[in-house]
Amino acid sequence: MKEFTFKALAMGSVFGVLFGASTVYLALKAGLTVSASIPIAVLAITLGRKLFRTTILENNIIQTTGSASESIAAGVVFTLPGFLFLSTAEAGNYFNYAVIFILAIFGGMLGTLLMIPLRRSLIVKEHETLPYPEGTACASVLKAGEKGGDFAKAAFRGLGFAFVYALGQKMFRFIAETPVFDTAKSKVLNGIFPSAQLSADITPEYMGVGYIIGPKIAGVLVAGSILSWFVMQPLLASLIDPVRIAQQQVKLGFLKDVATAGGYGGWDPITRTFADPASAIYRAYIRLIGAGAVAMGGLITLIKTIPTIVSSFSESIGSVKEAGKDTRIRTERDLSIRVVLFGSLALVVAIGCLSIIPGDSFFNRLLIGVLILVFGAFFVTVASRIVGIIGSSNSPVSGMTIATVMGTCLTFLAVGWSGKVYEPMALVVGGMVCIAASNAGGTSQDLKTGYLVGATPRYQQLALFIGVLVSSIAVGFTIKLLDIPSPELVAKGIHHAIGSTYNAPQATLMATLIKGIQSRNLDWNFVLAGAFLALVVELCGVRALSFAIGVYLPLSTTLPIFMGGAIRGLVDKVKKSRGVIAKAGEEDLEKGNLFATGLVAGGALMGVIFAFLKIPDKVVAFLQRLSLEKTLTSGLGEIGYYLLGVAFFAVMGYALYRAGVQREKIVEEA
């Protein structure tokens, strides 16, 4: 069957450019990314198969090549704009196209290289324990498109439902995007339980992801968020004065000073209060606690998986001895371990030799390369496991990057490198590891898809290298294009749109952490509290990493995921009572999974489309005229408007439940 063809690589590259550009915009504007692999898989089976008669394996290469765009874009945007926010103006000179392109391509290739020897241990051997929701969903989409009939109908019903739902939510806005109930708005409740906030991003993709990962993992995730938003938030609000919270935001770079309005949560210097205290506390303290928890959870995960990692590398090294007489079947053939070893070393040496990368000498840059390789090997493994649990869309890559930045700065201090001149070097390490970890997560999903559809791993890995190259070209161009200031900004003396028009929140935080540690002025108490919180949870027998991710992520993300997981639990219970089991290997083609796949694909695709549509001012104005939000809010009140959105979300949940419990031909009575 045709697989690694020019038309597949060309189509994947085009999709990579489009999705990379839209992801850069969305990440700069809101600090969010939308998974690209599932929408590209949908496009592959609708356009590729119908117009170009592509096979299922070619469609897999299309989505593999194109999906690298989202990973590269996220890693770049979350870190490299930090050059603009470091202590010296000279650091901003490194924010140029050449540096962005080199760091993007090196980081992306490192992420793919380090995943090659891990594929068998994480994707194959732990197939039953690591669901890789987006990878599984992509495989279901490709299988459904290939089989047609009822298989395709179930997925496309979910896709159509998500399309209609997203139009109501993002275009006409009669479905609220994030219903919020905050005790700060009630004098009585705020007095006894201050700044607790219940919220949910009631989108199709979150419900679909929750259904795919199941109730157990979804429950642990939401438990971490409940601890953050219903335990730590009210406690900190009771103990800390709003002025102190504002000062902490100033310290982190979210607020200019306490005399200036703005920042997260809407600081008012006149009343000396926040309009949204919960968001203010979350940004000022909870994310630091969550970053510490994720770092400790990642360390525990690495320690527990060392035997698996060692066996995986030994298998790969053993395959070197069989070079030239490889008898393994096609679906088990990876690129040689020599490619991994020599490729990784070549990247380290190249970093040392390139004078445009921050560093005064070859030795300085070589140390950067070594740190990138060490932290990259660690967090690539952790990132792969994280996305195996909750998917790439919710992977706390910024949390892992925070841990990398802190470790790098401490290493610099240990060798006597303190001061402003070393800040750009620390950001390079954090940026490349962030890109590598982000791309490793996407690579894991792609390899899972390939495993489920019977692809050749070697061809997928080659396609990923091509995708990294094309995406790096597009991402670097887009981010520099969006950084061009408007005439109004230039008139005010502002020469970068990033930091003014585009907030780039993660990059701002990375720069602030680097400046804080290099100047020995960081709140280690919150980071260490999070680390030991994760240790306590692990000792209680709960997966610390899943719980830590919940602590780090907002409740608005984990709650709708939990709802999807709860529906999956209810469906499984109904099926068990009927004595119905799925045939081996066909679980992913159950109608409930296919419908959930459609929800994830449709919601993600519409998110990308509307992110792209929000760039032209005329389109934004047109969408504002179509919006019914103000009309419904004035007629129903804010609570009524939110309840209307929750009602539509419940209807979607019921449709997912009905699809899950529907009897189907691919199951048999036990």
Explain how this protein is built:
The chain is an all-alpha fold. It contains 25 helices and six strands. Strands 1-2 form a two-stranded antiparallel sheet. A hairpin with a 4-residue loop joins β3 (267-268) and β4 (273-274). The longest helix has 45 residues, at 277-321.
Number of helices: 25
Strand order of the largest sheet: 1-2
Please report which band the strand proportion falls in: under 5%, 5-15%, 15-25%, 25-35%, 35-45% or over 45%.
Answer: under 5%
The main sheet comes to: 2 strands, antiparallel
Shape call: globular
Average pLDDT reading: 85
Please identify the structural class as seen in this structure.
mainly alpha
Please render the helix and strand layout as text:
Layout: H1 6-30, H2 37-51, H3 56-77, H4 97-115, H5 119-125, H6 133-147, H7 149-171, E1 180-182, H8 187-192, E2 197-199, H9 204-213, H10 215-239, H11 242-252, E3 267-268, E4 273-274, H12 277-321, H13 337-353, H14 362-390, H15 397-414, H16 423-453, H17 457-482, H18 487-491, H19 505-518, H20 524-539, H21 544-552, H22 555-578, E5 580-582, H23 591-613, H24 617-626, H25 629-661, E6 667-669
Antiparallel strand pairs: 1-2, 3-4, 5-6
Helix pairs in contact: 1-3, 1-17, 1-23, 2-3, 2-6, 2-23, 3-4, 3-16, 3-17, 4-13, 4-14, 4-16, 4-17, 5-12, 5-16, 6-7, 6-16, 6-23, 7-23, 7-25, 9-22, 9-23, 10-12, 10-21, 10-22, 11-12, 12-14, 12-15, 12-20, 12-21, 13-14, 14-15, 14-16, 15-16, 15-19, 16-17, 16-19, 20-21, 22-25, 23-25
